């Protein structure tokens, strides 16, 4: 037999036949995460948590909420500027711009609930509104609610012609409906109870 034992490093036998204690050896390959040599991906300092997108810890040890925001969002810390961008996107009528501005505003002001946002959209006479659609989904820990059995959807007209839009399934925005708000607020307020 050629080569060395993966357990102790001696030649002449394989790991299954080894009776010696395991010897720690240095890692000589490259890291899958950063591409540097000398360490494994599990011990990489540049690794990002898959739950909250933070660094310095793993998803198993993470105590933060899930990062549900799209990865390509521009960063801003000013809620007033984010609201102005939301108003401008609503004025243009472009769904993609409105959706991006909506996500930015939600990220800057995570304390707002879906009900508060919908009431504000209606008071401001937005072209878009939030629709709650009953759907069975797992209950992740997300900033606006702890459970999401009644996600919101985005539609361009009151009839739902495009069921598979390219946005997260639990939050969609759509144009104005007539002022029928009887069930909208209750469904947005209690996503997860049916």
Automatic annotation (TrEMBL):
**The keyword Zinc-finger is assigned to this record:** yes
Recorded GO terms, molecular function? nucleic acid binding; zinc ion binding
Q: Quote the SUPFAM superfamilies the UniProt record gives.
A: Retrovirus zinc finger-like domains
Disordered: annotated segments: 140-159
Q: Does the keyword Zinc-finger apply?
A: yes
Q: Which organism is it from?
A: Aureobasidium vineae
Q: Where is the composition biased (Polar residues)?
A: 140-157
CCHC-type domain: from which residue to which, for each copy? 5-20
Q: What is this protein called?
A: CCHC-type domain-containing protein
Q: Which SMART domains match?
A: ZnF_C2HC
Keywords (alphabetical) are: Metal-binding, Zinc, Zinc-finger
């Amino acid at each position: 037999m050629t080569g060395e034992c993966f357990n102790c490093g001696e030649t002449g036998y394989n790991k299954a036949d080894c009776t010696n204690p395991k010897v720690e050896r240095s890692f000589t390959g490259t890291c899958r995460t950063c591409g540097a040599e000398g360490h494994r991906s599990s011990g990489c300092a540049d690794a990002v948590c898959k739950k909250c997108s933070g660094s310095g810890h793993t998803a198993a040890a993470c105590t933060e909420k899930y990062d549900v925001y799209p990865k390509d969002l521009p960063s801003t810390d000013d809620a007033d500027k984010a609201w102005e961008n939301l108003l401008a996107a609503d004025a243009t009528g472009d769904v993609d711009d409105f959706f991006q501005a909506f996500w930015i505003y939600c990220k800057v002001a995570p304390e707002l609930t879906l009900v508060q946002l919908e009431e504000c959209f209606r008071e401001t006479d937005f072209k878009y509104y939030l629709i709650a659609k009953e759907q069975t989904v797992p209950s992740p820990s997300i900033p606006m609610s702890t459970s999401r059995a009644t996600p919101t959807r985005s539609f361009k007209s009151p009839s739902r012609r495009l069921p598979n839009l390219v946005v997260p399934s639990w939050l969609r925005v759509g144009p104005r409906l007539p002022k029928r708000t009887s069930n909208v607020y209750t469904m947005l307020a209690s996503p997860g109870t049916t």
